[in-house]
Amino acid sequence: MTVFQTYFTLGFYHIVSWQATDHLTFLLALCAPYALADWRRVLALVTSFTVGHSLTLALATLGVVAVNAPLIEALIPVTIMLTALVNMRRAGPVLARPALRAQPASVLWALPNLLALIFGLIHGLGFSSYLRALLGVSRRPLVELLAFNVGVEVGQVLVVSAILLLGLLLVRGLRVARRDWLLAVSGAALGVAALLLQMRQ
Question: Of 3, 26, 15, which Cα lies nearest the Cα of 151?
């Protein structure tokens, strides 16, 4: 197995793993308000998150910025909690009406994308702690960094696709109200994040 394949696999399983509870829960909360038909909005969100975490992952792994690991580990559950609370806040006024698309574009795109970007910066620092531990004393791990990041992205796309398909199955197949789906998922994410935050204090 090449170096690229090795670090690609490590990045992929850093996301697609039960040990990645925090990142999986964040992606669940981030995508919960959207249906499969909203894939453009989801793509914009995921892209914003990717830009954020790719930037800080590279800077921290290359030693350009220092990482306060305990602080970052505590902030990651906070990003989940804030995402869940935003979802719960918008569940009533937005999803109670038939069309989510009726809301102003600035509300639907700008704020969620900005939050995804900011939260991506925090999650990237979390990824970097793991990657730097793997790299040890390597000073210019460009191939490893690229491969790990690509692995993370492929894993992330898989997880997001699964979340959207699950939502489609429940909302269209089992006739679960979108508002109920959003509130249930957000409440669960909020609870998981609270437990993670308590464990990391």
Answer: 15
